[in-house]
Amino acid sequence: MQGIQQEIEGRDSVRAVVVFALCCGERSLPVCRLGVSDPAWLRACLDRSWAALADGSKVDLQELSSVGSDIRDSLEDADYGRYHMAVFDAITVIGHAVSCAGQATPGISREEAKMASAGMLRMLQGVHFEQYGRFDGWQLHESVSRELAWQKQDLALSSAETGARSVEATRIRASRQGQMLVDGVVSGEWSGFVPPDDWPTLF
């Protein structure tokens, strides 16, 4: 887990770091739907952040950073029901991801990305406790191994190519992973994976 944090710290490209953070936010969005009555505003915040990558000249970065803080402030005194802690952590991840997208300073963007990364793992730690009644062994659970593999892939893809088409493909992949994440939160099934683009189809 420290390896991911160190890899983020070693990234010089703000754009690549933002893509990574937004992938974490995109993955966490389906979990928010388990407890947020109207998650459309979170979807809109992520969409604005992805749009900033496409054409940053049309986005007020300071405003976007403030939106990220507003998302985290919305957590105060909230009750998200049965999946409260998972939803709480998921919203926190989106807040850090959006704040990351609103940063032009490499150091601050890296810190926000690291918090988004850590938030995903904190969510899985809590889910492990909910499903097994203990924290022991959570770091070795398949849910964590899969998330770390996804994060390493996010870092590799975001650093290799950050053109508009590549970024959109990365967003779509993270969105599909998010559905697998929420399936695991609800059912305890963590074995799903996103097939590569060249995976053969049956029909």
Taken in chain order, the helices and strands follow as HHHHHHHH
Give the overall average pLDDT: 87
Sheet with most strands = none
Radius of gyration, CA atoms, in whole angstroms: 16 Å
- Share in β-strands: under 5%
Total number of β-strand segments?
A: 0
Q: What is the fourth-level CATH superfamily? A: YP_001051499.1 domain like
- Per the CATH scheme, the topology name is YP_001051499.1 fold like
Shape: globular
- Helix run count: 8
What low-confidence regions span 5 or more consecutive residues with pLDDT below 50? 198-203
Number of domains: 1
Instruction: Determine the fraction of residues in helical runs and give it as a percent range.
Output: over 70%
Supply the helix-strand structural class. mainly alpha
Q: Can you identify the CATH class?
A: Mainly Alpha
Question: Termini separation (Å)?
Answer: 39 Å
Task: Kindly summarize this structure in a few lines.
The chain has eight helices and no strands. The protein is mostly helical and 203 residues long. The chain starts with a helix and ends in a 16-residue tail after the last helix.
Please explain how this structure is put together.
- The chain is mainly alpha-helical and 203 residues long.
- It has a single domain (2-187), classed as Up-down Bundle (YP_001051499.1 fold like).
- 70% of the residues lie in helices and 0% in strands.
- Helix 4 (61-73) runs antiparallel to helix 5 and helix 6 runs antiparallel to helix 7.
